[in-house]
Amino acid sequence: MTHWIDTPRATALPDPIAEPQFYDGVLPKRAFAWVVDVAIITFLTVLAGIATLTLGFFLWPLFFVAIGALYRISTLANRSATWGMRLVGIELRDHDGERFDTTRSALHVAGYYVSMMFVLPMLASIAAMLVTDRRQSLTDLVLGTAAINRPG
Question: What is the number of other CB atoms lying within 10 angstroms of the CB of residue 24?
Answer without folding.
Answer: 13
